[in-house]
Amino acid sequence: MSKRFVIVGLGLIGGSMALALKGFEDFEIVGVDVSEPTLRFAREHGVADAVTNRAREAVEGADVVMLALHPQGILDFLEEHRDSFKAGCLVTDVCGVKSAVMEGAKCLPPQVDFIGCHPMAGTEFSGVEHAFAEMFQGSHLILTPREDSTEEHLELLERLARHIGCQDVVRTTPGQHDAILAYTSQMMHIIAVSVCDDPSLFACKGYEGSSFRGCTRVAALDVRLWTQLFSLNAPALVGCLDTLIGNLSAYREAIASGDREALAGKLAWSADRKRKMDLPGPDLLG
């Protein structure tokens, strides 16, 4: 008999995960969503082996449950369904903030394992209609296990990572994950939307270079999702923004002063750090 792998939330990431997991060991992939148009699309395009809007029934017999919901949705789902998971079940998620989710998972009974999971992949689009099986190829898969998480479940997620095409798996703590992602992801989104707040934005249409398009690509974001990500990781993100504001002020001062030597020195220092960052080497999340 095949085992059941339930994915709750068939948006861009959940839908892509369902597609990527086809043929994974002997798991039946079951997709769960509350949206009838989403379920209809998933059913018509074979996104999963089966789809349903009956979350409780789906998770009751599941061996693995992956929560691909917005952060607050994950917290609410864990609280509402904490007694629905069978003993020995692995529950995981694909959320971009880990401390809040791992704290919320403490509501689960001790016989249910929870391992935080974050595939470092995505696009600026949302919805199952934009899902594709190759989404995770070449990406990092970050895991934040609990102290009592089983090695069996960790190895299962490592095999999952290989199946969907990830280049590696990194184990870290929720706090370290959130501190680094505040810098490498969330702050980048803040920069993008801040650039788009400039009154000159629409006057620049037709003059955009690749650097402008690259910087602002993620500004057309999912407002509800990113509001929750920013809010649930506020301490780490505010610290990153304070550092950024200081760095911008230093550049402004160097430019305003007219001191080209000082400006060149700052640019050279920053450029050298970027080049060193791009060199092959150990992953800082290790």
Multimerization state: single chain
In the CATH classification, which architecture of the largest domain applies?
A: 3-Layer(aba) Sandwich
What is the first-to-last residue Cα distance? Answer: 37 Å
Strand order of the largest sheet: 3-2-1-4-5-6-7-8
CATH superfamily of the largest domain: NAD(P)-binding Rossmann-like Domain
Derived from helix and strand composition plus strand pairing, the structural class reads: alpha/beta
Low-confidence stretches: none
Please give a handful of descriptors for the protein shown.
286 residues; 6-phosphogluconate dehydrogenase C-terminal fold; alpha/beta; 48% helix; Rossmann fold; elongated
What is the compact description of this entry?
The protein has 286 residues and is of the alpha/beta class. It has helices spanning 12-20, 36-44, 55-60, 71-81, 99-104, 151-164, 174-195, 210-216, 223-232, 234-257, 260-277; strands spanning 3-8, 27-32, 50-52, 64-67, 90-93, 113-119, 140-145, 168-171.
